[in-house]
């Protein structure tokens, strides 16, 4: 099994993001929330954008005056603009977008309904694109040489049973990441994606603890699933000076699952 390091060891890596401001969609829970904790530990400010009406309280509890939460739906254009305005009002500038809001819904390809397909694509792909478009336009207009990280999945590069809409959305994330990176390099904006395997968030534990998860782990060279901080640290690295030459990349964080 590949060793994993303690959460404290990972969280104490210094990636030089002090004073930067990161907008994190889906920041109230799971990978987005862990990423917010990582950025706060770096001395960055965070703007959590999430459906959860408690998101501002969650933000304040985590980061005090270095964090705000803006509740709403990333599928709504006015809300996306509102998040940027609130972030600028609170912290002066937005340097980073982490596009993390997403849902998983499973259905066999032969019976999936149009509504089910559209909902999955709308939240996981379209809203992520339009959020990146809004933040990218803000960065271009204001001369911010920022960084955008879109959360894809191993499902974006391989087939997974009952994941047809999810795989299509995540494959789309990887493709749109390349195009935005190509078009926005001239503005000094880097755009990358990360593609995790199963991540042991609260939901991940619920879905994968037990025999089905144990069988899946045997297929992963690492012989384990990912911890949320292992995704947060890679996202933060992609936003750091150490990744200055990385753009348009999809970084698999899958313990080797997709090698075969
Ligand atoms: N957990 C995994 O195993 C795993 C693996 C690979 C990729 N991912 C991807 O990582 C991202 C986060 O997943 P997670 O496991 O942390 O999920 P999660 O369910 O724990 O958290 C998702 C957060 O996004 C918010 N959200 C959902 N829809 C929203 C919307 N329309 N507008 C605003 N906020 C919304 C939710 O309220 C929630 O706080 C997703 O894009 C998911 O596809 C997860």
TrEMBL record:
InterPro entries in the cross-refs: L-xylulose/Carbonyl_redctase (IPR051737), NAD(P)-bd_dom_sf (IPR036291), Sc_DH/Rdtase_CS (IPR020904), SDR_fam (IPR002347)
UniProt-listed Pfam families: adh_short_C2
Key words of the record: NADP
Keyword Cytoplasm: no
Keyword NADP attributed: yes
Database matches in NCBIfam families: PRK06841.1 (NF005309), PRK07231.1 (NF005559)
Subunit text: Homotetramer.
Family: Belongs to the short-chain dehydrogenases/reductases (SDR) family.
UniProt protein name: D-threitol dehydrogenase
């Amino acid at each position: 099994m590949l060793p994993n390091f303690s959460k404290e060891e990972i969280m104490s890596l210094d990636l030089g993001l002090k004073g930067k401001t990161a907008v994190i969609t889906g920041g109230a829970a799971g990978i987005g929330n862990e990423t917010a904790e990582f950025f706060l530990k770096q001395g960055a400010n965070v703007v959590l954008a999430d459906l959860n009406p408690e998101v501002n309280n969650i933000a304040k509890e985590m980061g005090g005056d270095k964090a705000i939460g803006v509740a709403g739906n990333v599928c709504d254009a006015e809300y996306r603009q509102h998040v940027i305005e609130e972030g600028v009002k609170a912290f002066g500038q937005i340097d980073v977008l982490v596009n993390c809001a997403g849902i998983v819904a499973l259905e066999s390809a032969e019976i999936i309904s149009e509504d089910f397909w559209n909902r999955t694509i709308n939240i996981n792909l379209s809203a992520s694109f339009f959020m990146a478009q809004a933040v990218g336009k803000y960065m271009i207009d204001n001369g911010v040489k920022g960084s955008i990280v879109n959360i894809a999945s191993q499902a974006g590069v391989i087939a997974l049973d009952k994941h047809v809409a999810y795989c299509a959305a995540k494959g789309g994330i990887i493709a749109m990441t390349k195009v935005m990176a190509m078009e926005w390099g001239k503005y000094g904006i880097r755009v990358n994606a990360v593609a995790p395997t199963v991540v042991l968030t609260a939901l991940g534990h619920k879905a994968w603890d037990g025999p089905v998860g144990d069988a899946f782990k045997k297929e992963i060279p690492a012989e384990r699933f990912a911890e949320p901080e292992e995704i947060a640290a890679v996202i933060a690295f992609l936003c750091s000076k150490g990744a200055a030459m990385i753009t348009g990349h999809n970084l698999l964080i899958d313990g080797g699952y997709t090698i075969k």
